[in-house]
Amino acid sequence: MASIVESALPDDNAIVLARRWKHWRSRVMPLVGIFTLIFVWWALIRVFNVKPFVAPTPFVVAETLYLKSGVLLQNLVPTATEAFFGFLLGNMTATVVATVFVHKRIVQESFFPIAVLFNSIPVVAQAPILVLLLGNGIEPKVAISAMICFFPTLVNMVRGLGAVNPQALELMHVLSASKWEVFTKLRLQSSLPYLFSSLKITASTSVIGAIVGEWIGSQFGLGALIIQATFNFDSALLYATVAVGSCFSVSFFLFIIFLERMCIRWQPASHA
Amino acid sequence: MRPRAADRNLVEASASPNMLDHRLAGSAVSAPAIPTAAVDCDGVTVRFDGAQHSITALENISIAVKQGGFLTILGPSGCGKSTLLRVLADLVKPTTGKVRILSNSPSQARRKRAIGFVFQDSTLLPWRSVIDNVSLPLEVGGRHRATVENGDPRELLRLVGLSGWEKSLPHELSGGMRQRVSIARALVANPKVLLMDEPFGALDEITRDRLNEELLRIWQETAVTIVFVTHSIYEAAFLGEQVLVMSSRPGRVREIVPIDMPESRRLAMRESTRFVKIAAHLRAVLETC
Fold this sequence. Notes:
Number of domains of chain A: 2
Distance between the termini of chain B: 29 Å
CATH superfamily of the largest domain in chain A: MetI-like
Radius of gyration of chain A: 25 Å
Oligomer: heterodimer
């Protein structure tokens, strides 16, 4: 007996160690990846002797992030505002339109192709049109951002609101539930996983929309800063701006994941 | 005269005003004190029209279940037994024939909350806790909601043996527990008729046996009328006061078998000679379907 226990112990230890390593690996490895990327970036610039106005070294970018943090944050605020309101507007409109589509087939048949048509126009082509229509302020940027967010959410919500367990619909019929009750108690809830999968996509695309909007004639925002830095051959500022923009995108994305975890505590039907 | 001659197990239709009482098959004595049957189908036919050809799911079904009765419907798969239950629940409209639930049409009965329905799949809303799932019927139904005398969700959870699970989510429960929740939900609006569509069909035998016993207890405690669809001979004979055996394509009433067994049924009863004989008879009838 004793020998069995003794021989089992090292194995147990090995299993515990393996588990611990697995646990830490998922946290450590992304950092290793990022540092490797930065090292390769630095090495390439060193080896090929790239001029500073073509591409900066990571250290110069870090320095710029610190020295020009005031300017960067000042320009992040309008971009973040545009992206946020575009995100809200686009997703809310899409949800409302999807609701109408699901309840009125004939509306969906006539207007869904138009939505597809608008979505097929590239953002860079939509942007000038909206700038001409809405002027030079914050409005066209919000509009562009909203238009990018609109389509993925529309498609997902049409699917999500329709993806109701048919037996649950029969249950609601036996309970004499009204259409409004079926919508609020059943359809809306069961579409949440679909909604969140498109919210995750649109969280980052809304930032892209805002930045593209700022490229077309704007004096403020990260997009304007990108254009300025490019024309001044200020590669360090350009890279720093891009870094700030993508940091914001990632935070927005993580915030949506956090919201999803809060809202969907139940397992979706497909996983159960 | 009503055209109902097809069913030999029913008392022949006559012009007598209390013929309804005669049709309460299974009850030996017709009791004039009971005014109406809980469920009364008269010549119900259901035809589904397809693009190529139409399918007759039910043909000339006439049955009656007395108030507080327990009818089980037994038949091979595809015989339309679920369709019959769905006709009673106003989920399918009969092509011809008349359906009365406590003297109301199925849709009136549904609006008055006289019907409770239990599906084969528990159909719980996965985002709602157990207690909120049971309360669902009290939250929907608009203006009809206030007119009924409702049960207490907590009390019903106790009735189905799930006290202490109020806050759990459906995915945390086993299949049998989920089905208990759906039974509590069906009972919360105090229905007069409980329709059950193979509710224990997806469960393992041990759980199914236990739930069968508990269903009988609930039936005795609530005095609800139950119509129960199953494809298990033992379940049909164990639960029902009478078993309606259906033949398939098209679904017809093959035979109505009264189950003459003592009131308080126990699972051990299934080993008794009488029960085995009844089961053998049901099997023999099913084989001719």
